[in-house]
């Protein structure tokens, strides 16, 4: 193969290499700018990824739905249709295997467990990683514990998530309407 | 060039030991050898440097600079990537030396990882480490062929194994079989085969030999899902494939330290047999193994068996002088014992112990016949480990055990001594 042919193939490859991260950015920006924002109640814990750094894993309170269908398969992707409760938090409207003809927002989730005849399906929401500066991930978990230990019922932790056409982008994690980083910075001072 | 060599040549020339033509030939040979030497060293350092810089960038990114705005971070995601692409493009376009291609390819490999890591960090993109590694590998695979880069091929091999382990050794409910690992390995194979053809005894080719054997050995376990006792059979077949591959003409005449297939094939089979020589293991297999052909484990074991068998037939056909090496047939024997073990654990245990002892003895014989101390002691070690292992499950008194140990120690000493003496006599 001639150098020029290799070079052309190389150009094609670098276009793909540039396209993939660019598309990742573009898709998320689109959801962030034009999607509807939901609040998902959550609890954070702190693990670590060798390449992408520290993050907190978010365990969402919204992790199950009532259903009469007993044929859900573990590990399969399902669509969770959303609505807002009186306080503005996200709530399951219904679950479905395929798209329904409705304007209602939905997110994709993975079936984690299905007890067959209990009429309940458990699922995992995909936007469960919130990357943080390496010194802040562990304090974030501690702050969450602190605010929930005080017996303060008004303390609510939730994730702010933009949703559009089934795509969801996690924007930030809040405790009592303030970003979690606010508490970490305040405690550091 | 070394001045001592030049002096020697001129001295030999003056005394008419060598002709003028031979002298120029010798000088030219050492000159050409010298020319390629620093180049090779430079490649190694170039690749190492690029790896360190690339990994450094990834670590800096992993810190997560949350006081920078999203747009600035996005720009940073592309800077290393674009620089690496420009350098790689330049070295292809200007037909630069291999040093350039290897180093820039390595840097580009890590720059892609850095770029997608930063983007997924900025936007909290879900997905575990497995899916991240997958995207990374797919985007960098073409580099192997476009830059003709050994370094990138090695990196892909390592990262593909990492991907497979991440996916397959996760014992949660999400445990998946890393089938795409096979696709990645297949994609690197043409490059390896070309290396085998052009430079079979180069050091870099032996690095690939070791990479492939170690990768397969580590990753095969990730293909076991629920029918784990058949995993023993899978590994026995894999080591059978390795050992018989090692007997192919391309590898057989190489030094043992280059022929990873023979080394891992033989060692792996022996270690596996030692594990299987315990009766409790066969008791578990008897209860839990399923030989239904539709399980993933049985299919893989069968495929590996057929592969090993075909390579065995091929080498036997090519062989000029008839020779019998028991190690080549171990996979066949283990397959038979495994099917006996499904019905009767005791018989399988006894058979495994017998085959281990016979293997040890045959290694001792090969070692003694060819005067190779390493092979001789390898055989002795196999026999010793069988004896030592039986101490755990056979109830005998301490005095007998002690006597046996003394006997084994003497055996080691005596066999080596006798062989040393014989070798000296032969040399005389």
Compute the number of strand runs of chain A.
Answer: 12
SSE pattern of chain A: HEEEEEEEEEHEEEH
Number of helices of chain A: 3
Largest β-sheet summary of chain A: 7 strands, antiparallel
Cα-atom radius of gyration of chain B: 27 Å
Measured on Cα atoms, how large is the radius of gyration of chain A?
20 Å
Commentary on this structure:
The complex is a heterodimer of chains A (189) and B (428). With 189 residues, chain A is an alpha+beta fold. Chain A is built from 3 helices and 12 strands. In chain A, strands 1, 2, 3, 9, 10, 11 and 12 form a 7-stranded antiparallel beta sheet that branches. The model of chain A has no long low-confidence stretch (mean pLDDT 84). Chain B is mainly alpha-helical and 428 residues long. Chain B has a domain at 227-428. Chain B is flat. Chain B starts with a helix and ends with a helix. The chains are: A alpha+beta (189), B mainly alpha (428). Chains A and B meet through helix 1, strand 3 and strand 9 of A and helix 2, helix 3, helix 4 and helix 5 of B.
Task: Give a short summary of the structure.
The complex is a heterodimer of chains A (189) and B (428). With 189 residues, chain A is α+β, with helices and mostly antiparallel strands. Chain A is built from 3 helices and 12 strands.
List keywords for this structure.
heterodimer, A: 189 residues, alpha+beta, five-stranded antiparallel β-sheet, 3 helices, globular, B: 428 residues, mainly alpha, 79% helix, flat
Write the layout of secondary structure elements.
The complex is a heterodimer of chains A (189) and B (428).
Chain A: H1 3-34, E1 36-45, E2 48-49, E3 53-60, E4 64-66, E5 77-84, E6 90-96, E7 106-114, E8 120-124, E9 129-131, H2 137-149, E10 157-164, E11 167-175, E12 178-179, H3 180-188
Antiparallel strand pairs in A: 1-3, 1-10, 2-3, 3-9, 4-8, 5-6, 5-7, 7-8, 10-11, 11-12
Helix pairs in contact in A: 2-3
Chain B: H1 3-14, H2 20-62, H3 70-93, H4 98-122, H5 129-140, H6 143-146, H7 150-168, H8 179-198, H9 203-220, H10 230-246, H11 249-252, H12 260-276, H13 279-288, H14 296-318, H15 330-343, H16 345-370, H17 373-393, H18 398-427
Helix pairs in contact in B: 1-2, 2-4, 3-4, 4-5, 4-7, 5-7, 7-8, 7-9, 9-10, 10-12, 10-14, 10-15, 12-16, 13-16, 15-16, 16-17, 17-18
């Amino acid at each position: 193969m001639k150098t020029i042919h290799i070079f052309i193939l190389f150009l094609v490859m670098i276009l793909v290499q540039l396209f993939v991260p660019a598309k990742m950015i573009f898709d998320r920006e689109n959801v962030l700018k034009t999607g509807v924002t939901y609040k998902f109640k959550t609890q954070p814990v702190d693990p670590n990824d060798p390449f992408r750094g520290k993050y907190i894993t978010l365990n969402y309170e919204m992790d199950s739905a009532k259903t009469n269908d007993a044929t859900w398969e573990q590990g399969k992707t399902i669509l969770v249709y959303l609505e807002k409760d009186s306080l503005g938090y996200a709530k399951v409207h219904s679950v479905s295997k395929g798209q329904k003809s409705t304007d209602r927002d939905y997110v994709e989730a993975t079936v984690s467990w299905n007890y067959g005849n209990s009429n309940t399906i458990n699922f995992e929401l995909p936007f469960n990683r919130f990357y943080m500066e390496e010194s802040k991930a562990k304090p974030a978990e501690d702050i969450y514990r602190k605010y929930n230990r005080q017996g303060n019922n008004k303390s609510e932790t939730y994730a702010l998530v933009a949703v559009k056409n089934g795509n969801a982008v996690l924007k930030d994690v809040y405790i009592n309407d303030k970003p979690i980083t606010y508490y970490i910075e305040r405690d550091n001072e | 060039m070394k001045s001592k060599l030049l002096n020697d040549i001129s001295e030999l020339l003056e005394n008419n030991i060598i002709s003028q033509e031979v002298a120029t030939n010798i000088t030219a040979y050492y000159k050409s050898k010298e020319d390629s030497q620093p180049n090779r060293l430079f490649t190694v350092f170039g690749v190492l440097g690029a790896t360190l810089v690339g990994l450094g960038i990834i670590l800096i990114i992993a810190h997560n600079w949350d006081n920078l705005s999203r747009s600035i971070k996005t720009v940073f995601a592309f800077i290393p990537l674009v620089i690496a692409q420009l350098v790689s493009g330049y070295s292809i376009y200007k037909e630069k030396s291999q040093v350039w291609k290897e180093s820039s390819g390595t840097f580009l490999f890590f720059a892609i990882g850095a770029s997608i890591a930063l983007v997924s960090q900025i936007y909290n993109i879900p997905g575990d480490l497995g899916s991240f590694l997958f995207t990374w590998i797919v985007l960098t695979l073409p580099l192997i062929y476009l830059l003709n880069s050994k370094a990138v091929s090695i990196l892909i091999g390592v990262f593909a194994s990492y991907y497979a382990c991440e996916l397959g050794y996760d014992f949660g409910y999400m445990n998946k079989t890393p089938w795409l690992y096979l696709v990645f390995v297949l994609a690197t194979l043409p490059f390896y085969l070309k290396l085998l053809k052009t430079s079979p005894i180069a050091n870099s080719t032996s690095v690939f030999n070791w990479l492939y054997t170690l990768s397969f050995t580590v990753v095969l376990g990730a293909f076991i899902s629920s029918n784990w006792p058949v995993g023993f059979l899978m590994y026995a077949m894999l080591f059978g494939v390795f050992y018989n591959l090692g007997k192919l003409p391309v590898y057989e005449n190489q030094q043992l330290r280059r022929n990873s297939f023979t080394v891992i094939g033989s060692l792996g089979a022996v270690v596996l047999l030692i594990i299987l020589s315990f009766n409790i293991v066969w008791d578990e297999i008897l209860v839990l193994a399923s030989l239904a052909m539709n399980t993933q484990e049985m299919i893989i074991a069968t495929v590996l068996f057929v592969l090993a068998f075909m390579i065995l037939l091929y080498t036997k056909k090519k062989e000029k002088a008839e020779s019998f090496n028991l190690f080549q047939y171990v996979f066949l024997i283990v397959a038979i014992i495994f099917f006996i073990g499904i019905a009767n654990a005791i018989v399988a245990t006894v058979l495994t112990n017998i085959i281990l002892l016979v293997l040890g003895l045959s290694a001792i014989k090969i070692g003694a016949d060819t005067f190779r101390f390493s092979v001789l002691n390898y055989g002795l070690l196999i026999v010793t480990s069988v004896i030592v292992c039986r101490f755990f499950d056979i109830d005998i008194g301490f005095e007998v055990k002690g006597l046996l140990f003394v006997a084994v120690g003497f055996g080691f000493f005596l066999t080596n001594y006798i062989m040393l003496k014989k070798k000296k006599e032969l040399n005389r």
